[in-house]
């Protein structure tokens, strides 16, 4: 054992029986007859090792992974495509400016939209189906930068989730909630009450849509991912100390146009000096023309009848709700003409028209409260999806397979079908 330890020690000099010094070379390892230690080969010199390391390093830096090569090829083709599209857009913009007699240097995107609407008028209901001329960066989707290095190693720790940016946002939300909880615990520990004036106000904004969230994170997500994101953000926004992360929350909020910033028509006056205001309300397919007169007694006339025109009490409550909300019930008169739609839709159209007309009778603060209460919002008609295949189905003909209710005569179609 002692000899083994000495042999392992580098630079040890031993003397044999003939008093001849024996130098033990550091890279030689002796082997005794009862030793289990095997011989190790002689290592390379230090210069050779350095040269080999440099060679390996050069090979690793020069060699690119297949993923990086594929990304570089796609990036080059995308850049060439965008360069071509932007060049064509600039040529078309200058040509369009010359057609409209404008200066190409000051021809803005708003001028382009007006020129396209003038030269190519369209009666299509869907705005996305109408002709347009936008900058290529607005038309074509964004592309994510390389998410891995030359060797194929991903940069992001959540790369293998498939949606690293989305899950990073959820991770940030959870981190903020935990930090706010710890801050709230410290405030309770030191008996410090929350300042009510520093509450986060999100009344003038809404959460971004699914498409807008996808453009922010540059990733495609499913509806369930978006729903979970909204639930997580609502939990963060409802925290008592959410104002401490206001900047993070507002990144995913979209401001909506305030009614107080919109132009509200001024009151009109009759020959007798009575103020009044006209408005048109709508709900689904129902349309209503409403006139609200000031200095009234609370009289409500609908298609020449009183409020009993609506048989359902809930529909009557809809009509008078804007008057109750603005505390003008009994101080103004309402005259409405409504057509089309069902009874519920007509009541909603009258309510919408009354609310729009009352904007001229109240101050801006009340108008903002009306907007937040949803009184100034119109509900459009429901758009049914297009049905492909047979033009008629059994349910459209009045046949119910569960209860076997056959339609009224004639039965020619069903008799042929079930014969």
UniProtKB/TrEMBL annotation:
Keywords attached to this entry: Ribonucleoprotein, Ribosomal protein
Protein's UniProt keywords contain Mitochondrion: no
MF annotations from Gene Ontology: RNA binding; structural constituent of ribosome
Keyword Cell inner membrane attributed: no
GO biological process, one term: translation
Pfam families assigned: Ribosomal_S9
GO cellular component terms, A-Z: mitochondrial small ribosomal subunit
InterPro entries: Ribosomal_Su5_D2-typ_SF, Ribosomal_uS9, Ribsml_uS5_D2-typ_fold_subgr
Similarity comment text for this entry: Belongs to the universal ribosomal protein uS9 family.
PANTHER family per the UniProt record, alphabetical: RIBOSOMAL PROTEIN S9, SMALL RIBOSOMAL SUBUNIT PROTEIN US9M
Protein's UniProt name: 28S ribosomal protein S9, mitochondrial
Organism of provenance: Penaeus vannamei
């Amino acid at each position: 054992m002692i000899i083994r330890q000495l042999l392992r020690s580098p630079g040890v000099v031993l003397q044999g029986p003939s008093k001849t010094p024996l130098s033990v070379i550091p890279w030689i390892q002796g082997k005794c007859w009862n030793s289990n230690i095997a011989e190790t080969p002689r290592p390379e010199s230090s210069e050779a090792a350095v040269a080999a390391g440099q060679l390996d390093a050069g090979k690793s830096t020069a060699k690119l992974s297949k993923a990086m090569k594929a990304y570089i090829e796609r990036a080059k083709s995308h850049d060439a495509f965008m360069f071509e599209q932007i060049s064509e857009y600039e040529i078309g913009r200058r040509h369009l400016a010359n057609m409209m007699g404008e200066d190409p240097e000051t021809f803005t995107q708003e001028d382009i939209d007006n020129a396209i609407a003038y030269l190519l008028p369209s009666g299509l209901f869907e705005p996305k189906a109408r002709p347009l001329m936008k900058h290529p960066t607005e038309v074509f989707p964004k592309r994510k930068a390389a998410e891995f290095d030359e060797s194929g190693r991903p940069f992001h720790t959540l790369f293998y989730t498939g949606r690293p940016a989305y899950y990073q946002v959820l991770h940030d939300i959870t981190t903020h909630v935990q930090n706010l909880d710890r801050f709230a615990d410290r405030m309770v520990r030191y008996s410090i009450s929350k300042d009510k004036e520093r509450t986060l106000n999100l009344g003038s904004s809404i959460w971004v849509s699914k498409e807008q969230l996808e453009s922010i994170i540059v990733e495609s997500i499913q509806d369930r991912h978006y729903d979970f994101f909204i639930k997580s953000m609502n939990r963060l926004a409802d925290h008592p100390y959410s104002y401490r992360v206001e900047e993070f929350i507002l990144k995913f909020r979209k401001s909506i146009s305030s009614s107080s910033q919109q132009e509200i028509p001024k009151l009109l006056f009759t020959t007798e000096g009575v103020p009044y205001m006209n408005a048109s309300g709508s709900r689904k397919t129902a349309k209503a023309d409403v006139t609200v007169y000031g200095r009234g007694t609370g009289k409500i006339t609908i298609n020449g009848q009183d409020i009993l025109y609506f048989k359902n009490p809930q529909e009557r409550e809809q009509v008078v709700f804007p008057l109750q909300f603005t505390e003008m019930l009994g101080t103004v008169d309402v005259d409405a003409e409504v057509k089309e739609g069902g009874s519920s839709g007509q009541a909603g159209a009258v309510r919408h028209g009354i609310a729009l007309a009352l904007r001229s009778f109240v101050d801006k603060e009340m108008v903002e409260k009306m907007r937040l209460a949803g009184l100034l919002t119109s509900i459009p008609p429901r758009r049914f999806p297009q049905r492909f295949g047979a033009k008629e189905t059994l349910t459209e003909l009045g046949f119910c397979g569960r209860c076997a209710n056959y339609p009224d005569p004639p039965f020619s179609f069903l008799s042929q079908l079930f014969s």
